[in-house]
Design brief:
The chain is of the alpha/beta class. It is 32% helix and 16% strand. It has eleven helices and twelve strands. It starts with a helix and ends with a strand.
């Protein structure tokens, strides 16, 4: 009865598909997240001596310099040299007051790769559910002033195969997905009302999903038209599996890289037009070729603040069992939760 009631109330409680009240039950997984911190002796942060073997660990680069120069610098550490047309996937942000990455911050990086900014329409209403309105939002938020811009599902969807999944066998991205040979995933790391947090994996799953693809993931592969009422863990697992289909399609991860910006760390997503004001300080920018390692590193940096100004974001993550996305992503081979954190500021 409780589950049925929650399923009925969920669409009402969600604002633009993203705003839920905090769950009363908290999943106790903070120790799991903290156990995954892996830093190099040469570049460990905050004087930490918590060092483990870096064997088989993915490299994650970090800078505390949240500026255009810092963003370019941490990206360049990846040594990524795209040899074709580049899409830069980001969130255009829901009006009127979301915390999307500002064009003045990302302009130099986007232009350095001659990138086209890409997005897909939402599946849950708001100002970005229809193509014409979404283009207007992109213009109003300044993205069309710094680069070419495309709504990838303007003409529908294309299907990607999901290999090794337990929830999905197919994933639906924008029909224009294959217009680009390389993808730079530029994510604003923050909380999320349904996923617990949003980072690289959410950006390549829900973010790159067409409108029907978003419903497909949210519903755990049961509906292409209704994103509401799916089982929570199935939704989290579907995100991981959809993300893997994208990575697999792009040369098994060879033609895609990831950058997470940890500023304006609200508990709410950029798809919320009126998010909660952040109550923790900005942290920095991280980059990796491994989305699992990247998101894990960001979570660990948040957890370092869990007894202080990061408590509300940690509660949001745990109340949605957010760590399960990373657990499943690692299990199906999208990436590794073990990482070596390299501070490029040193």
């Amino acid at each position: 009865m409780i589950k049925k009631l929650l399923a009925l109330l969920l669409p009402i409680l969600v604002l633009s598909g993203c705003s839920l009240s905090e769950s009363a039950n908290t999943t106790q997984n903070s120790s799991k997240a903290n156990s995954k911190i892996l830093e190099s002796e040469e570049s460990s942060m905050n004087g930490s001596n918590q060092t483990r073997s870096a064997k088989d660990a993915s490299t994650v680069y970090f800078t505390s310099d949240i500026t255009p120069d810092g963003l370019v610098a941490v990206y360049e550490k990846l040594g990524w040299k795209p040899q074709g047309k580049v899409a830069v996937k980001l969130s255009t942000g829901e009006p009127p007051a979301s915390n999307y990455l500002r064009p003045e911050l990302i302009k130099d990086l986007v232009q350095s790769v001659s990138g086209t900014i890409v997005e897909c329409n939402t599946a849950y209403g708001g100002s970005r559910a229809q193509t014409e309105m979404h283009y207007q939002v992109a213009k109003d938020h300044g993205f069309t002033d710094i680069a070419d811009f495309q709504i990838q599902d303007e003409n529908g969807s294309m299907t990607l195969t999901v290999n090794g999944g337990s929830v999905l066998t197919e994933n639906y991205v924008g029909a224009a997905f294959d217009d680009y040979e390389y993808y730079l995933i530029l994510s604003h790391f923050k909380g999320h009302a349904m996923a617990g947090y949003g980072g690289a994996i959410k950006n390549i799953s829900i973010g790159l999903g067409s409108s029907e693809g978003k419903s497909w993931i949210h519903s755990g592969g049961t509906s292409k038209t209704n994103p509401w009422g799916g089982e929570q863990d199935k939704f989290l697992e579907a995100m991981a599996e959809a993300g893997k289909s994208v990575s697999d399609h792009l040369g098994n991860g060879e033609r895609i890289v990831y950058v997470n910006v940890m500023n304006r760390l609200s508990i709410d997503c950029d798809c919320d037009g009126n998010p909660a004001e952040p109550d923790m300080h900005d942290i920095g920018i991280l980059a990796s070729t491994d989305p699992v390692a990247l998101d894990q590193a960001c979570l660990d940096l948040v957890y370092e603040q869990k007894d202080g100004d990061g408590a509300s974001l940690v509660n949001r993550i745990e109340s949605r069992n957010g760590l399960h996305t990373l657990e499943h992503a690692e299990e199906i081979g999208l990436g590794s939760r073990n990482y070596q954190l390299v501070n490029i500021d040193d």
